[in-house]
Design brief:
By secondary structure, the chain is α/β, with parallel strands linked by helices. Helix content is 35%, strand content 21%. The chain is built from ten helices and 14 strands. Strand 3 and strand 4 form a beta hairpin. The longest helix has 23 residues. The protein is globular and about 65 Å long. About 1% of the residues have low confidence.
Amino acid sequence: MLVSEGVYALSVETPGPLRTINSYLLKDGNDSYLVDTNWPAHMSIDHLGSAPLKDSWSRLLELFDEAGADPRQLQGIIITHAHDDHLGYLPALQEFTGAPAMLHSKEIEAHGIRVKRDEIWRWDMITWFRQHGVPEDSAVKLVDYSPTFQAIPLGTVHSLSDGEIIKVGSMRWEVVWTPGHSPGHICLLERRSGIFLTGDHVLPHDTPNIHAHPRLPLNPLGSYIDSLKRVECLPVRKALPGHGVVMNDFQEVVSNLISHHDVRFADVVEALRSGPQNAYDVACALPWVGRRMRFMQLSYRDRWMALCETIAHLQALEGRGLVKIISCNGSITWNLIAA
């Protein structure tokens, strides 16, 4: 579907709140680039819950036909971030087209860490959860139910950097580095038209999952909010997300995301007013799922996400100088020092 001059969209339906997985083909003259590859319909996506409902490969090829583009002349496959649903068809597309994958250098590094699941990783994760107050049996279950990522090879890679310009005919797409949802997440801005491809940085119907992880950079939520404030000032007229529908109210959506986290920060601060607590106790004190559920009512998979999000909020508050981390005998607690 043509969504703007030179920009074609493929939206594949998927169950759950994300609604669709979106890919975009940028085409002008003889130049063409694909942004995110979608995901094979026959394979499950653990962090989404199930696979897309449609035959995404045939629809991906139809996208090229609609744009009048020969996939074998594709010049690059731009990956906003290396999560399975944005990366799944990369090996098949690279074999079919010969085009390089184009990712931010930080995302290339994070991808190697994310997919490595061995016994050392497992022990590190269990130890990390225990440090944050999770009981032993629950720590094991949280690791067992943690979202997994496929070991999808990146093949030939071109490393992108913040501010880099990708020329597509008369269009000039600027790489905007937006760490938070992942360390090397990028968006793409075409300033002349005001079209902004947001990946998972800004979504229309859902708050992107921002979680702490022991093997990835500290304070991802602090980075995410800084990235939100950066893009809020950009001259965006139409935003095209990695999931969901086109956003014509981009600045309002960004403002709402910032406000959402402000409320969450207030929840965490309130939970700490009674004294130092570990992240597990804070997570148990917070409301979840539209403020309708308690932590122990969640599935183990959702508890994993909730606890990692809680740690991310605590790290961000530490970065703001509002809480202090206390480490003692391998246990980590958080103390409110200002509010």
